[in-house]
Write a structure and sequence with these properties.
Layout (H helix, E strand, L loop, with lengths): L4 H12 L5 H14 L4 H8 L3 H14 L18 H13 L10 H14 L2
Helix pairs in contact: 1-2, 2-3, 2-4, 3-4
């Protein structure tokens, strides 16, 4: 199985990045191990995974390249909340203040908290 230099760089990047999903990291390891010329049996022993797992991700990489390592859409009812809706709620939560409660930066709160703790309240 051959892997281009660009593909290898992406796969190794996925392995180094702390935020990569464990499933994607494992798939990257499988492909890199196979690209080193190891047999399916060697890969499954080294990574302690099922033979079908190695075969599946090896085959998908050969057929679709890096895109083959990502999860396929799952069956079921389509999402009702869009990514735009989620983003709008997050922005509103982080950037707007409540009308009933005035927003005070944390550096303004610190002296108040210290004064109250000094008074014992």
């Amino acid at each position: 199985m051959s892997v281009t230099d660009a593909q290898r760089a992406v796969l190794e990047g996925w392995l180094r990045r702390r935020t990569t999903a464990q499933a994607l990291a494992q798939r990257s390891r499988i492909v890199l191990e196979c690209a080193e010329g190891r047999s399916i049996m060697e890969v499954l022993r080294r990574l302690r995974i099922a033979p079908e797992t190695v075969r599946t991700w090896r085959r998908r990489f050969i057929e679709r390249g890096l895109d083959g390592l990502c999860d396929d859409p799952r069956p079921g009812v389509p999402r009702k909340i869009t990514d735009a809706d989620v983003e709008r709620v997050i922005v509103k939560t982080l950037e707007e203040t409540c009308r009933r409660t005035p927003h005070r930066p944390t550096d303004e709160l610190a002296p108040t908290a210290l004064a109250q703790s000094a008074r014992g309240s």
